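A favour, since you know our structure tokens better than I do. Would you make up a two-line entry for one protein for me to read? Write everything out right here, beneath this request.
=====
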Amino acid sequence: MSYLGIDIGTSSIKVSLINAQQQLLATKSINIPIQRPNPLYSEQNPEDWWNAVVTAIDYLQNNYANQWQHLKSIGITGQQHGAVCLDKNGAVVYPAILWNDGRSYQEAQFLNSNYADFLHINGNLVLPGFTAPKIFWLQKHKPEIYQQVSTILLPKDYIRYRLTGEYASDLSDASGTSWLDVKNRKWSEKLLQICQLDISYMPKLYEGTAISGYLHSNLQHAWGIKNSVTVVGGGGDNAAGAVSVGVICHGKAMLSLGTSGVYFIAQDSYLPMDNGISHSFCHCIPQMWHHMGVILSAASCLSWLSLISSKAEHKLIANAQTQRYDADATPLFLPYLSGERTPHNNPFARGMFFGITHTTQLKDLTNAVLEGVAYAIKDCEEILPNTKQVESLAIIGGGAKSNYWGQIIANVLNKTIVFYDETKIGPSFGAALLALAGDNGINVSDLEINPLIIKEINPQPQLINFYQQKHEKFKALYQQTKNLNNLNL
């Protein structure tokens, strides 16, 4: 039997096919475009997600037919917070507004200023990237579009709808809408009413391993699958990624270094965040929660530098390793290319190089980018609870391919960074594990998830103080320049 994980990422769609022994059978990734038609906007066409999923599945069907035809269950994961608006016939009425879209900052400010219920019930401040202010923005600025809206889905749940015909979601993903009662793991009618909504607009909620529907029979036959296929609740991308590296017990922690950067800590009880800027969400595992700090631009900063320098990312990093540790040689870089969430909650924050001279070279800028992302992750760590008890962090995502970057992060955080076989971890693999557990009616903990450790990188004691001092300058640079990005702040 085989199990499929589908990850609706921001830059690509990825699928992973595993067997009952948690062995990876096949994987495929398909790139997808992002549209930024106006400042602060970030959108995608949900049809692009579906077309990419179909292309990836065609690849599995054509190249791994024997394993594919015995598919038993599908788990779905993906980017959180996106707003996919459907009419009464299930048609998309507006482009999906993504997690790194900042247009609804005024709506978020209004909801926070006038309704303390969001912080008290959802356990989090309403941030511009969350789903609720996006819908509030649509109500105000596109009323003719909003009048057509009958159902609001998250990105992965639109794919579930295309697979099964069901409007459903899981609790980890729903936590990031601002409408979930996170403690009691259910929609809050009160929070929905504030946004002029009710539960009829919302998908049905499931735990990550619960069966949420069945693959359409016409898809089952078209894709050459012999038996009926269940589709489980799945999880938000970070929660599913955490499952893939066994971050399913209290106090276990993970760092995701993808398009965004995430510091993730599993919790066995609900603890709302008084600071409001880091997140307290449900885990995709029953009766588990997690805390999370999120920076909006992580590995995407390196991709940006690669684009403007016409140098491949791996070549940039290889060249950067020749740079000696000289505080005067490497500039400071603020990685706020899409604004920032944790800890600043500032959609107007912008990226910056500071300290450039006539002798600054591309390798210096590369080191500045790698360090700047690490300092932003450190900012997250400083406001999350229980991080002092964390001795090591599992690392996943595109940035996890670089040992050099891992060493910088280990030094900045003063923690051991654990690298795994990257082909057998990540959100799509975690979603497949959720499908495996759900189809067999067992707890995720019973799967004994033990991904292969490739390397452990320890902090270098002689450089801890160097990075601590530079981190303080990094924080001061933001504070000194933040008002220049928008004089109305």
Remarks:
- Residues 2-245 form a domain with the Nucleotidyltransferase; domain 5 fold (CATH 3.30.420.40).
- The mean pLDDT is 93.
